[in-house]
């Protein structure tokens, strides 16, 4: 099995349900680097859940904390970073990620995303009368931003988490400034 050296943080971007956490965890395992989740880091810093932050302080407050945490993590030692679904909408966040790391969009169809998130109660943005339509609208609104990612990897229902992680590695090795194959 080939070995790699990660030179910059890989920020996984995309919609909720795209596989950022699952694929990111596997990717970090393969690359022998830490896996971090920006939402978990925000919760740790605030000592509250994302849902509680949204409810008590509102989305603008949450987005400001998210930008602070992203900048700190991307500029730290190379890791695989799962970002919140809305993080990449911010021009500031896109710039910080691009300057210090690399963004990888995990692209997925609305049907695939819905199949993955419909039973989860931890998605504050989907607490609406028609959550599937909300998800479709979010996808439509966010896709132009996700398209600005440095790299893109398409998710399909028949692909395992391990196969998706390998697809991400294939995309990353096209960027020698980010990932170097060192043997195998």
Keywords:
8 helices; 184 residues; globular; 17% strand; two-stranded antiparallel ribbon; single chain; 7 strands; 5-stranded parallel beta sheet
Can you describe what's shown?
Helices cover 49% and strands 17% of the residues. The chain is built from eight helices and seven strands, in the order ββαβαααβαβααβαβ. The chain has helices spanning 20-31, 38-46, 50-57, 59-74, 91-100, 110-117, 131-146, 161-172; strands spanning 3-6, 9-13, 35-37, 80-82, 101-107, 151-154, 179-183.
Structure summary:
The protein has helices spanning 20-31, 38-46, 50-57, 59-74, 91-100, 110-117, 131-146, 161-172; strands at 3-6, 9-13, 35-37, 80-82, 101-107, 151-154, 179-183.
Assess the beta-strand content as a share of residues.
15-25%
General form: globular
Structure annotation, total helices = 8
Strand order of the largest sheet: 3-4-2-5-6
SS elements, strand count: 7
Overall radius of gyration? 16 Å
In N-to-C order, the SSE pattern is EEHEHHHEHEHHEHE
Overall pLDDT confidence = 92
Low-confidence stretches: none
Distance N to C terminus: 5 Å
Largest sheet: 5 strands, parallel
Which structural class should the secondary elements be placed in?
Answer: alpha/beta
Helix content: 40-55%
């Amino acid at each position: 099995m080939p070995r790699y050296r990660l030179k910059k943080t890989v920020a996984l971007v995309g919609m909720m349900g795209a596989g950022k956490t699952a694929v990111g965890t596997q990717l970090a395992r393969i690359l022998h680097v830490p896996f971090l989740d920006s939402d978990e880091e925000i919760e740790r810093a605030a000592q509250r859940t994302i849902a509680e932050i949204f409810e008590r302080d509102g989305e603008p407050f949450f987005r400001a904390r998210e930008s602070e945490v992203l900048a700190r993590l991307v500029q730290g030692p190379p890791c695989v970073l799962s970002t919140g679904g809305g993080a990449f909408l911010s021009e500031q966040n896109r710039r910080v990620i691009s300057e210090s790391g690399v963004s990888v969009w995990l692209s997925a169809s609305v049907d695939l995303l819905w199949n993955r998130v419909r039973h989860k109660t931890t998605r504050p943005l989907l607490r609406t009368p028609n959550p599937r339509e909300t998800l479709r609208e979010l996808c439509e609104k966010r896709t132009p931003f996700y398209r600005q990612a440095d790299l893109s990897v398409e998710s399909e229902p028949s692909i395992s988490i391990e196969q998706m992680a390998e697809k991400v590695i294939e995309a990353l090795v096209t960027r020698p400034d980010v990932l170097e194959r060192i043997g195998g």
